[in-house]
Write a structure and sequence with these properties.
One of its GO terms (molecular function) is oxidoreductase activity, acting on NAD(P)H. This is NAD(P)H-quinone oxidoreductase. The chain has eleven helices and 15 strands. It has 328 residues and is an alpha/beta fold. The chain folds into two domains: 181 residues, Medium-chain alcohol dehydrogenases, catalytic domain (Quinone Oxidoreductase, Chain A, domain 1, Alpha-Beta Complex), CATH 3.90.180.10; 135 residues, NAD(P)-binding Rossmann-like Domain (Rossmann fold, 3-Layer(aba) Sandwich), CATH 3.40.50.720. A hairpin with an 8-residue loop joins β1 and β2. α3 packs across α4 and α6 runs parallel beside α7. It is globular and about 60 Å long.
Length: 328
């Protein structure tokens, strides 16, 4: 096939700027594979890119879509360990909203156990993000108190499960009784409805959080610092309420706090390959055994990508939203 369907961003704006188009099927270069996409995950960075707030890195596809699952359609020079027909899920530099997508071979992972491609498409972006930030950067250990904001999101539902399996005491925030109940079913010791309770008071009452994973930012940042235990760590991965805030950093010094954070997409191919290798060794066995699993919200056909974005930006979802691209 020489052409494929894609979803383009016609101009910066709301979900309505996403449009179906046709482009040439890309050819894998050295160390790359071409994936015949069956399902593609929908994530917040896709919406930020669509709005003109998150430009793709140099050399990456301008199409949205940072994760997908499907079959290897072609392999580029220098690729070892992957062959045409292999079922994989993969972290993508972009381009997931299409029939075919390119990615470095080292960013591909096998579909765990008997999991379907629909569920596997929900793994890469969230699991790469949670593993690298909660465990590698945040250093979460058994017995520690862990707070994740946005507990019912794709990131949140993943973080709750992995932290629970690691032996941490897990706390989460969410915006409704339904979402809080979902967090507790996944293993949160307590889910805090932020419309009804102050997470700072709850965590301080437990001795403070040893680690907080936050994607809200804004006025949450000084509150997170108050909620931390002495020697606690705050890991920032997004800023839904904005990145700028006035802070009194005396607490950071006197209580020996650590403020850090990261974004996944701009990291080097080698850094992402190392995260993939760690996931394959440490987390993929948990997925294959059913000890952790993606939480699914809703699926949309590729041509309804705008509706998928509207669903995500409504914050009504619990878990992951996916696009059905091909069969699988």
């Amino acid at each position: 096939m020489s052409e494929m369907r894609v979803v383009e961003i016609s101009a910066p704006g709301g979900p309505e700027v996403l449009r179906l188009a046709r482009r040439a099927v890309p050819v894998p270069g050295h160390g790359e594979v071409l994936i015949r996409v069956a399902w593609a995950g929908v994530n917040r960075p896709d919406a930020l890119q669509r709005a003109g707030l998150y430009a793709p890195p140099r050399g990456a596809s301008d199409l949205p879509g940072l994760e997908a699952a499907g079959e290897i359609a072609a392999v580029g020079p220098g690729v070892r360990g992957l062959s045409e027909g292999d079922r994989v899920c993969a972290l993508l530099p972009g381009g997931g909203y299409a029939d075919y997508a390119l990615t470095p071979a080292a960013h591909c992972l096998p579909v765990p156990g008997t999991m379907g491609l629909k569920e596997a498409a929900c793994l890469p972006e969230t699991y790469f993000t949670v593993w690298s930030n909660v465990f590698q950067r945040g250093g979460l250990r058994a017995g520690e108190r862990f707070l994740v904001h946005g507990g019912s999101s794709g990131i949140g539902t993943t973080a709750i499960q992995l932290a629970r399996v690691a032996g941490a005491r897990v706390f989460a925030t969410a915006g409704s009784a339904e979402k809080c109940a979902a967090c507790e079913r996944l293993g949160a010791e307590r889910a805090i409805n932020y419309r009804e309770a102050d997470f700072v008071e709850v965590l301080r009452g437990e001795g403070g959080a040893d680690l907080i994973l936050d994607m809200v930012g804004g006025e949450y940042i000084p509150r997170n610092i108050k909620a931390l235990a002495d020697d606690g760590r705050l890991v920032q991965i997004a800023f839904l309420q904005g990145p700028k805030v006035e802070l009194n950093l005396v607490q950071v010094m006197t209580r020996r706090l650590t403020l850090t954070g990261s974004t996944l997409r701009p990291q080097s191919d080698l850094a992402k390959a190392r995260i993939a290798a760690a996931l394959r060794a440490e987390v993929w066995p948990l997925l294959a055994a059913g000890r952790v699993a993606p939480v699914m919200d809703r699926a949309f056909p590729l041509e309804e990508a705008a509706a998928a974005h509207a669903r995500m930006e409504s914050s009504a979802h619990i878990g992951k939203i996916v696009l059905e691209v091909g069969s699988g």
